[in-house]
Amino acid sequence: MSISNSQNKWRAQRLSRLGSSIFQDVAAWKVEAAASGADVIDLGIGSPDRGPAPEIRRVLSEAVLREDSYAYPSSEGGLAFRRKAAEWMDFRFGVEVDPETELLSLMGSQDGLSHLALAVCNPGDLAIVPDPGYPIYSGALAVAGVEKWPLPLKAENGFLPDQDAIPAEVLERASFILLNFPGNPVSVKADLAFFERLIALARRWDLLVVHDLAYSEMGFDGYRPVSILQVPGARETAVEFHSFSKSFNMAGCRMGFLTGNAEAVGALRSLKGNIDYGVFEPVQEAAISALDLAMGPKAGEGVGALYERRRDRFIAALGDEGWNVPKPAATMFVWAPLPAAAAARGLDSRGFARELLLAKGVAVIPGDAFGEEGRGFVRIALVEDEERLVEAARRIGAFLRGA
After folding, report:
1. Can you tell me the distance from the alpha carbon of 193 to that of 171, in angstroms, rounded to the nearest whole number?
2. Exposed/middle/buried for 215, CB within 10 Å: 0-12, 13-18, 19+?
3. DSSP code of 339?
4. What is the DSSP string of 162-182?
5. What does the mean pLDDT of the chain come to?
6. Which residues pair with 362 in a beta bridge?
7. C-beta neighbour count of 132 within 10 angstroms
8. Whose CA is closest to 114, among 187, 196, 19?
């Protein structure tokens, strides 16, 4: 056996197709920067810096103290949670779903995103995913042996995909199309008219539509993200992911759900019934509490206002430093085209992110981590308080001036 083969003896070849290791690279750069004495402002990973509301934490803490909370949960999620999630879908979007057949709890939406292709596709099938897009979209296809067709999101189209530009032969072969609005890393909005056209396309080509609505509660300037299931008849051909990580600051709890087309939801339920036992019951109880709060007297007073204030302060501060960046319409991310000063210094997205972190202690993610269309951009997460974001902007300005 050759040395090269021996080195890969216990590593599957599919792992090499999982995509960029940039998040590990940035983590290593942060260690390097901290070792040199830098005060690192981490605007890389989109992990909320706030905890959930006290009411949610109280429910969780009381539930974990009960002795009867430690049995295996159901892999599909307790019926109490699924009913509450269905109630919230009706409250928030005016969408009625069957909690028993059209809703499945998940250990965070990434759990479902990473397994859906295994459940609804066969090896050799094709799926359409956005470029740039959240890395697990492509990574899940690699694990499932499904071919990827990247759907470009371009600035000249407002980062909305051109549905008419998808070749007929791609639509003929594709099992599903996955989109994410408002998105990560590109924080643009799609309206119901866009989704109506998408559902019509899916019906024409017998295509499953997968919509990742992880940022449903993070719209700005009066914008409230819409559900694709609001389109009449969408449940015949669409499913939608929802997450508690960003909407309720419950990222570490690992809670989410999939809802929509019963056949696709059932396929994922069958797969997960064989590979896990579902979400810890106290976490489900905390999630029920979160949804009750969202439907209570303070409905509409969620996390969006916090991130809108941060966006405004940060974008203004960057502008004061000479870097004019478009305002995102939603989410916790800024999708920023590289400033002219970066090109003048011969820096691409990765070089810019690395040099900025090592020189000034500000961590951002290179855009190429999200696909070929991400080259020339960086993603900046608004996961520090306003004063730290302003300080980050000052450091970025000093970096751009070569100070």
Report:
1. 20
2. buried
3. P
4. -GGGS-HHHHHHEEEEEE-SS
5. 94
6. 41
7. 26
8. 19
**Both tokens of residue 135?**
């890395």
What is the per-residue DSSP string for 365-386?
Answer: EEGGGG-GGGTTEEEEE--S-H
* Residue entry with tokens 């800024």: 334
Cβ neighbour number for residue 386 with a 10 Å cutoff: 15
Going by C-alpha positions, the residue among 399, 386, 401, 402 that lies closest to residue 43 is 386
- The DSSP bridge partners found for residue 365 are 379
Rounded distance between C-alpha atoms, residue 186 and residue 327, angstroms: 11
Separation between Cα atoms, residue 258 and residue 178, nearest integer Å: 13
Instruction: Pinpoint the alpha helices (H) of 20-165.
Output: 22-35, 54-64, 79-93, 109-120, 135-144
* Kind of pairing between the strands at 333-337 and 362-363: unpaired
Identify each DSSP E strand in 244-352 by its residue range: 256-260, 333-337
Please return the burial class of 61, using the count of CB atoms within 10 Å of its CB with bins 0-12, 13-18 and 19+. exposed
- Residues with Cβ within 8 Å of residue 44, at least 6 apart in sequence: 23, 26, 30, 363, 364, 365, 381
Q: Each residue of 328-345: b (16+ CB within 10 Å) or e?
A: bbbbbbbbbbbbebbeee
381-403 confidence digits (pLDDT tens): 999 999 999 999 999 999 999 85
Residue 258's SS3 state is strand
Note the pLDDT tens digit of each residue in 267-310: 999 999 999 999 999 999 999 999 999 999 877 778 999 999 99
